Amino acid sequence: MSPTLICDAVEWQELKGNVEEIKRKHLRDLMADVERCKSMMVEYDGIILDYSRQCADQATMEKLFKLAEAAHLTEKINRMYNGEHINSTEDRSVLHIALRAARDSVIHSDGRNVVPDVWHVIEKINDFSERVRSGSWVGATGKPLKDVIAVGIGGSFLGPLFVHTALQTDPEAAEFAKGRQLRFLANVDPVDVARSITGLNPETTLVVVVSKTFTTAETMLNARTLREWISDALGRQAIAKHMVAVSTNLKLVEQFGIDPNNAFAFWDWVGGRYSVCSAVGVLPLSLQYGFPIIEKFLDGARSIDDHFYSTSFDKNIPVLLGLLSVWNVSFHGFPARAILPYSQALEKFAPHIQQVSMESNGKGVSIDGIPLPFETGEIDFGEPGTNGQHSFYQLIHQGRVIPCDFIGVVKSQRPVYLKGEIVSNHDELMSNFFAQPDALAYGKSPEQLQSENVASHLIPHKTFSGNRPSLSLLLPSLSAYNVGQLLAIYEHRIAVEGFIWGINSFDQWGVELGKSLASQVRKQLNLSRISGKPIEGFNFSTTTLLSRYLQADTG
Ligand code: F6P
């Protein structure tokens, strides 16, 4: 049978019809239907999803569930959980769920139960991080290693940074991190190198080189730079005590000069952007907080894995979120999505989701290689509230329509109560979390403004059309467990989107062209610097800019 595209399915066409009906309705009216609102609220393991402010009704949801069936969503989820090679262009399983599986679970990839392998590495991390934290593993001069620099980029950086930033202010996690620092070095920009080592002493610093392939140009250059930083200060033999690695490529780790005993493995069935729960995140985070805290983070992710696998579509948080994203992108034609956590601790969540979402779903062909006649993926961006309100919310309220994810937390990590004030800082923050979705949905009409005696020439400027969709996720708190839940919700949501669109969400060929062109430029720069040869092989524009760059003393 020749491959088909989901847009040819009758269920897709049905939704095309439904969106025209929905466009004639205003969210103000949709929100007045309490039964509709009730049906658009689900709860699982302390997390509430309210999607009543989506430009959709019960009929839309029914049709989206039918679309999911037409796209064989359940079968695709099962294939993922069963370790089939659903990443067909790289001929790999997609098993990040195995990274947080219970010790006695059985998950196969290529006929092998991978769970014992996962737990073997977890045990090794537990043991190593405990030795470093307790001071039984010391540096070359006998001092305990209290600071860690994790060197890595993309999926080997953004997820761990998000989790670290979220846990930093969690009182339980912070207690275990006392006297320790975790820093990240991602960018090859020498400024990032300077930032990462400023104030640190090589004698008390452990460098963790994190790279799935161990070939990423930026990471390898940064790793060489920090290797030199350590060996210049402490001698070459100090590397054995001050540098460890996380990679799937243990051969290259050894060639780099890191003792294979100090390497923490993961596997090609873990995509880079889905690797936070592997040693990529678990090692640096366990060094900072201790493994027992990070185990709770893994438990939270596993809770969502179980929910995603076993819950019917209408109660399944990642499935609902994924279907609504498809609805917004493919039927409403909204190109972007704003991720708006009302939590400073989640300030690195949107940057992480940018990669997970845009590298996964920014594709132009189906999984069978057929050019798609519809757009996939959304442009993700975001900032914590209320900061974002004082930045880009103007556009969201009166300019372009951008579906918003509002993420709120019931219990603050750090509540503050000012004497004489009843509303706490957290209440103030959350007042905005509750208000913004309604401001977007209801807007403000010219009639309302007139009744408030607003000057007539200002009425067009002060009118809010409303009818702008959002959804709200309310978490009970922001413990390590909840952070794990949030991560897994978004990972699975993004997979659902890709499964419906019929694309491969687990490869990333689109990042390769730029990398290979950069390597040609690098070669030319080297040649010119060594032999003074003029730049050649590029177009006029690049040649001119490169020559100007070389004229200055930038080396
Ligand atoms: O350039 C994109 C990418 O390949 C990501 O997919 C990946 O997360 C990142 O580079 C880093 O790769 P590695 O972990 O192999 O260094």
Average pLDDT, all residues: 97
Number of helices: 23
The tally of beta strands, per DSSP, is: 13
Q: What sort of overall outline do the alpha carbons produce when their principal axes are compared?
A: globular
Q: Quaternary status of these chains?
A: single chain
Which ranges are low-confidence, i.e. pLDDT below 50, for 5 or more consecutive residues? none
Structural class, by secondary structure, is alpha/beta
Radius of gyration: 25 Å
Helix amount: 40-55%
Strand content: 5-15%
Small molecules (ligands, ions, cofactors) in the structure: 6-O-phosphono-beta-D-fructofuranose
Explain this structure:
- The protein is α/β, with parallel strands linked by helices.
- Helices cover 48% and strands 10% of the residues.
- Helix 1 runs antiparallel to helix 4 (58-70), helix 6 runs parallel beside helix 13 and helix 13 (279-289) crosses helix 14 (291-310).
- It is globular and about 75 Å long.
- The N and C termini lie far apart (58 Å).
- Residues 153-156, 211-213, 216, 219, 272-273, 359, 508, 511 line the site of 6-O-phosphono-beta-D-fructofuranose.
- It catalyses: alpha-D-glucose 6-phosphate = beta-D-fructose 6-phosphate.
- GO terms for molecular function: glucose-6-phosphate isomerase activity.
- Its EC number is 5.3.1.9.
- Keywords: Cytoplasm, Gluconeogenesis, Glycolysis, Isomerase.
Top keywords for this entry?
555 residues, six-stranded mixed sheet, five-stranded parallel sheet, 23 helices, 13 strands
